[in-house]
Amino acid sequence: MNGRIYASVLGLLSSKPPVVRVVPLSGRYIPKANDVVIGTVTDVQGTFWLLDIGAPRWAPLHMTGTPWKIDFGETGQYLGVKDSVVVAVESIENTGRIGVTMNGDGLGKLEGGTIVTLSPAKIPRLIGRGGSMIQTITRMTGTKVAVGQNGRVWVDGPEEGIRRARECLRIIEEEGQRSGLTARIQEYLDSTEDPDPRGGARPARPRLDSDGSARPEFDGPPGPHPLTRLPETVPEPEPDGPPDEPPPTEY
Amino acid sequence: MSDEVTAEILSTHILDLARQGKRLDGRTPDEYRRVEVEPGFVVTADGSALARIGDTTVLSGIKLEPGKPYPDTPNAGVLTTNAELIPLSSPTFEPGPPHPRAIEVSRVVDRAIRAAETIDLKKLCVTPGEKCWSCFVDIHVLDHSGNLIDAASLAALGALTHATLPQKRFGIAEHDIPLAVAHFPVECTFTRLGETIVVDATFDEEKAGQGRVTIATDEAGNIVAMQKGLIGAFSPEDVKEMAERAFRHGDRLRAIARGV
Amino acid sequence: MGNVGAKEIPELFGPDGLRTDGRRPDELRPLKITAGPLHQADGSAFVEWGFNKVMAAVYGPREVHPRHLQENHKAIVQCRYNMAAFSVDERKRPGLDRRSQEISKVIAEAFESVIFAEEYPRTSVDVYIEVLQANAGTRCAGVVAASVALADAGIPMVDLLPAVAVGKVGGKLVLDLNKLEDNFGEADLPMALVPQSGRLVLMQMEGHMHRDELGQALDMGVAGCRGIYEKMKAALRDRYAVAPVGASTGAAQ
Q: What are chain C's domains?
C-alpha cells in the first residue's frame, strides 16, 4: 500500500532483503502443510475422528489416514476421546478444513509420558538453531520429546527428567522472546544436573495395549522425535527490532 | 493457555505423580499456590477485592442499597450472593444464562457467609418490616486456572472486610461507617487424585480428579459449609482428614483476606 | 445525556478555561494499557482510563458454537460487552441489558471491518469485554482493550482500533468526557478510527450538536485516536519486549 508493506499480525520484523517476514509472537496455531502436530481426539465418528490440534478448526483424521485396517464403525476401538496422536498436516482447503494423516514415520498414537502446551510462537525457540536447544534439553534430562508445531510437546522418560524438561519448557514459554535464552536453560540444567541420568529407561508401567494400537517407534535413545522438523533458519529476536504491529515496515 | 480438552495422558501423568505424593508444579498435596488478596480494586463498589490463587483471578464487589426486609425476617437486612463465570475467563465457559456451575459457586460461597454470620444482618435493619440494607456480593471470575470456589470465597471475604455502609449517599445518616464484619469464613477445596487428596487443584488437576470437597471454616473452630461436587466418592475418614486440613489452611487464608 | 434539562447544571469549566478535572478541552484522561494479563485467553488486555477499568479477552479463531452461526466463507466476529454489577454507582442487574447488546453489536461490526475474516472460514473470533469499573467512555475503553487483545491473540487485522469520545459540554467541544461531563453535557460522540486509512468504523452520537460543530468534533476525535494509537502500540511492545536476560542494553562503552 503506497509503496509500503504493512503487517497484519503482531510480530517481529525479520528483514533480509528482498524478503520481509513478520514472525508472529502470539496467537493460536495456524496450520501449514507438512507440519507435525500433536492432537487430542474430541469426537469419534463412523469413518473418522475429530482432532483438536489447537488450530482455528478441529481437524478430521480419516480412517484411511492411519496404518490400521479398520472396518466402518470400528474407529472407536482404535482411538477414543482424549487420546493423543502425532499427525502431519496434509492440506488446508479453502473451506478452512484441515486434512491430517497418521501415515508416516514417527506418526501415531502417544502412550505414556506427558503433554505440555506452549504458545506455538515459542516452538522455534524450543527447537533452537539447527535443533541445538531441544537436543540440549533431551540430552541433559534423559527424555524423549516430540514437538508439535502447534505448541504441544510430548515428553517421556524418567520422572525426574520429565520434571526438569517441563521446567525448561516453562522457562521457554515465559522468557522465550528474550535473548540469552540458551544460557538461561543451560544454567538451569547445570544447576539441577542428575549425576546418573538413566537414559530413556523408564520404570515399567502397565501399558494398555488396546487392540491393534500401534505405538509409534519412539523407543530408542533420548532425543528429539524423528519428525521434529528443524527449520533452516530459526528467527532469533533481534534486540533492536521492536515488535512490529501494524506499523509499518517500510521496505 | 490451557487446552479445551485435557489429554488422557496428561491426566494419567497427574495421577501417577499423585500416587507418589507429587504434583505437576512441584507442590506437595497439602500446599496452595501463591495466594494474594488486593482490596479496593473497584472504587464504584462499596467494597471490593481481587483474589489471586496462582493464575486464577476472581474479583468481588459489594453493593449496599436500601431495600425492604423479607416478611419472615422483618428485623434483618437482605444478603444476596451472585457469581458470574463469564466467557472471558475460560475457553470452557459460554455466554448465556447462568450455568449450574456458576450457581453452585454462588450458593457455596453464600452458605458460608450466611452460616458464619459474617455480617450481622440484624444490624442492617433500618426500620423493622419497612426498610433495611440489601447487601449484594457479586463475584466476577476473570481467569480460570482451577479452584474457583476458594478464590471466590477469598474475594468475597476480602471485599466484605473492606466495605463501607454508604449511609450518606442514601440519606440515612450523616456519615458513612465501615460495614461491621463479625466473622471470617473461608473455603478450602480438595480434589481426589487416586488415593491422594490434594488441596487447591489446578484446572488440569480438576480435569484429572475424581471428585471435589469444599469445607468452609470460621475463626472459632466451626465448619460453616460443605459441598461435595463432581464425580467421585469420599469416605467419612477422608472428610474428617480434609476438615483438619481445612482448619490448618483456614487461618492463613483468613489472614490474607483480612490483610492482617 | 440522561440529565439534560436537570435543574442544577454544575460549572464544567473553571475561569482558566480548564475542565473540572483540570484538563484542557482536547486533553485525554490518563490512559494505561496492559497487554496479556490473562492466562486462559488467546489474547487479552486491561485498560485503566481515567476511573474506568476494563478487561478484554479474545478467543479464536475457533470452532463456532452454535454451529448454525457458521459462515462458509469467513470467520464471524462475536462480541460480548458486559458490565459487572458493581461497576456503576447503583448496582446493575447481572446480564446483558439492551444497551449492552447494542454496544456489543456495533463493536463486533467495527472489528469485523478490520479483521481479515476470510482467512479463517467457518470459525469464530470471540471478543469479550468486561467493564469492572465504569466512569464514562466504557465502550471506547472496551474497543481499545479488545483491539490490543486481538493483536495479542495474533488475529490478522488491517490495523489497531483506537477509540475515544468527543462531547459537547457547556457549549464547547471537549475530548474524552469524564462522568460529570457525560451526565451534564449536550452531546457524546464516541468513535473508533482505523489509523492507516483515516476512516471510522464505529460512530454513535447521543445528544445534539450544531452542524457547524461536527467537522471540528470529528477532527478532535481523530487527533485523540492518534494519540491513543501510540499507547496501544507501546503496550504491545512492552508485552513482547526483547530485553536480554540479565544483560543491560545501555552499557556499551
A: 31-236 (3.30.230.70)
User: pLDDT tens digit string along C154-203?
Assistant: 999 999 999 999 999 999 999 999 999 999 999 999 999 999 999 999 99
Q: Name, in order, each residue with C-beta under 8 angstroms of A16's C-beta and a sequence gap of 6 or more.
A: none
pLDDT over 60 at A106, yes or no: yes
Alpha helices (H) in chain B, listed in sequence order = 8-19, 100-115, 148-161, 203-208, 236-258
pLDDT exceeds 60 at position B153: yes
Amino acid at B238: D
Which residues of C are less than 8 Å from A247 in CB distance? 233
How do beta strands C76-83 and C123-133 pair? Answer: parallel
The C-alpha of C159 sits at a distance from chain A's nearest C-alpha, in angstroms, of 5
* CA dihedral over C60, C66, C72, C78, signed as positive or negative: negative
The region of weakest confidence among A10-24, C42-56, C117-131 is A10-24
Superfamily of domain A112-202+218-224: K Homology domain, type 1 (3.30.1370.10)
Helices (H), B125-235: 148-161, 203-208
A158 prior amide bond cis, ω within 30: no
Cα dist. B174→B166, B168, B169, B177 in Å?
A: 10, 5, 9, 10
**Which among A82, A112, A119 has the least Cβ separation from residue B5?**
A82
In chain B, which residue's Cα lies nearest the Cα of C42?
B1
Chain C residues inside the 8 Å CB shell of B143: 38-40
Report the alpha-carbon distance of residue C113 to residue B132 in Å, rounded. 50
* Closest by Cβ to B140, choosing from C57, C84, C135: C84
Tell me, which fold does domain A36-108 have in CATH?
Answer: OB fold (Dihydrolipoamide Acetyltransferase, E2P) (2.40.50)
Average pLDDT over residues B155-164: 97
Which ipTM score applies to this complex?
0.89
Radius of gyration of the CA atoms of chain C, in A: 19
Nearest to A57 among C123, C153, C246 (CB): C123
Eight-class DSSP state of C19: B
Measure the CA–CA gap between A134 and A177, rounded to whole angstroms.
Answer: 16
Strands A144-147 and A108-109: unpaired
Q: Burial code of B13-45, b = ≥16 C-beta within 10 A, e = fewer? A: bbbbbbeeebbbeebebeebbebebebebbebb
CA dihedral sign, ordered C177, C179, C184, C190: positive
Q: Is C95 on the interface with A (CB under 8 A)?
A: no
Structural domains of chain B in order of their starting residue, each with its CATH number: 8-258 (3.30.230.70)
Q: Which residue of C has its CA nearest to B66?
A: C90
C127 contacts C80 by C-beta, under 8 angstroms: yes
Which tens digit of pLDDT belongs to each residue from B183-228?
Answer: 999 999 999 999 999 999 999 999 999 999 999 999 999 999 999 9
pLDDT tens, position by position, B9-50: 999 999 999 999 999 999 999 999 999 999 999 999 999 999
Q: Tell me: the pLDDT tens digits for A212-244?
A: 333 444 444 556 654 454 443 344 443 333 344
Q: How confident is the model at residue A2 (pLDDT cuts 50, 70, 90)?
A: low
